[in-house]
User: Fold these one by one.
Assistant:
Number 1:
Amino acid sequence: MKMHDLKPSPGAKKDRIRYGRGLGSGKGEFSGRGRKGQKARAGGRVRPGFEGGQLPLIKRLPAKHGFTNPFKKEFQLVNVGLLSERFQAGAIISEAVLQANGIVRKNIPVKVLGTGDINKALTVNASAFSDSARAKIEAAGGKAVKA
């Protein structure tokens, strides 16, 4: 077989449709567009999203402002004032103890915040602490341990 013997398989090559080239072509007169109307005209299309004058979907939806970080860590928040109220001096407070007392839910990390006063020495084990919470716990003679 030589290069000049090569040709495509039968049926692989088709002629393009030639619109508007006479009635005998099968695509003459209206060229497959029908008789009248917007879609029969040159340039007769509507822009993407146009709904015939009805308020378009993109305008009916509420505007979404800003950015939502999909990797944001969600914490349950506990204040040092609450810990001071609920626990005795010298208590060791962990996330499991907080769950047992009904202060937090399971499987969500806990962050201790510095709202309120603490005057007892408590050892607090939590996933995170605010700077003010850590300072208040240590000033009261306790320990803030990151779990």
Number 2:
Amino acid sequence: MQTPLATRIAEHPKYQELKRKRTAFGLWLTLAMLVVYYGFILLVAFNKPLLATRLGEGVMTLGMPLGLGVIVFTILITGIYVNRANNEFDRLQAEINKAVM
């Protein structure tokens, strides 16, 4: 009797590898995002004078480029995840599909 497709996929060693790598990578990116985001929020909450420090003679303060940095960091780690997903994770998924179909 043929085992169901989902069972064959779940038991495949490449699927276990894909799941392990994707989960670990996602956790690292999540941790990095939490550190950056909550670090910025903690600065807002507990060190407003630092964020209010003027940069030059204009109206720009240190908080503005730091806030922009949080946004740019978010875009950057999204790009890193998409790059790895399109290369490594998709390759593993294709190998799994080929092996179990």
Number 3:
Amino acid sequence: MSVWVVQKQMMIIFILIIIGVYLYRKNHLSNESSKQISWIIVNITNPITLLCAALAEEDKVSTKEVGIAFLCFVVMYAILIPLAYLIPVLLGVQRDRRYAYRMLAIFGNVGFIGIPFASAVLGTGSLIFVSICGLTFNMIIYTYGVASLKKTARLQHPDEELRDVFSMKNVINSGTVMAVVTIVVYLLDIKVPEIMDSTLRYIGNCTTFLSMIVLGTSVAQMVPKEVFSRWRLYVFVIVRQMLVPILLIFILRPFIANRLILSTAIVMAAMPAANLPLMMAKQYGVKEDMISAGIILTTIATIVTIPAVMYFL
């Protein structure tokens, strides 16, 4: 894969983020409108982008390859979870702050940023595998992720009764449902009328721009000192967003013949930290400053880290 193609895509994403920063600072975009746009992205445009990939007139992969992709992502998370415990220990992070690094290490932004990026760099054919990654992500974050944050909340607030904000029913959400629908539509090669197909594509094409301007509003509000003064986060970025994905390349490559599956898995592994753990931490009353700083820094760092990782593919 041409590194220049990846670098060009990262430059485009950076420009779109800057537009979001500009819109926020000029008061054309507020926190409230950003939240509303985020809801539209998560619940409408992202899921429809996946569905459009399933409806595309392209060569279909087999059921076997879909199964291989699922196993690939299971292996990916099986590697990430132990590393998420090891990395903060090696960095000398205080015991009561290690949960933040675990959330940052395990849960990458495979939806909000991963979907539009994979579509642009790897093509829409990769989105069926992104759907599978999204399913795996949801199953892990609403089980292990919730349990980990609840344990942390009890340690930080031993005298408070913990309200069970999240439960297993949260696994059934728009992203999960549409991922399942996408896989079914893809495998059964279901067709829709042309007018519906065009409508869905118009909606799905909005995803990248909307995602990046919302991300720009977050960047515009960051306090530079809180983000850029934490030296451990810089080391974390190098280890988690460069060394770990490169390690995964060498682990998975001998077992995966389909290059698109491998490329998609590595791109998903190289994504910046996801926003959902931050939202969960806020819901549970867990200190989230380190998670917030990590999300911003890992997102900015992708401009350099993703092209570096893709060089090894």
